[in-house]
Design brief:
15% strand; elongated; alpha+beta; two-stranded antiparallel sheet; Pemi-like Protein 1, Chain: D; single chain
Length: 78
């Protein structure tokens, strides 16, 4: 069963998760996924295998860390 609640984001960007949700997750760590027009919050132990190969990078030299990093930054700007 899904539950929808509207939560306020404070000036420091914090959101308070209800105690029942935190108790059910049994973790102090969450993963926040920024996906187009929404944010997804998942427990840190969630199965993220669906995100494998979700990022494509057009870089020729993966063995050169500096070129790889430069290519990743270039793609992030676009």
């Amino acid at each position: 069963m899904s539950t929808v609640e509207i939560k306020t984001v404070d000036a420091q960007g914090r959101i308070i998760l209800p105690k029942l949700w935190r108790n059910r997750l049994r973790t102090n760590s969450v993963i926040v996924i920024d996906e187009d027009d929404r944010l997804e919050i998942r427990p840190a132990d969630a199965d993220l295998s669906r995100f494998v190969d979700a990022v494509e990078v057009d870089v020729e030299h993966f063995e050169d860390y500096h070129k790889l990093r430069k290519g990743l930054r270039k793609d992030a700007v676009h």
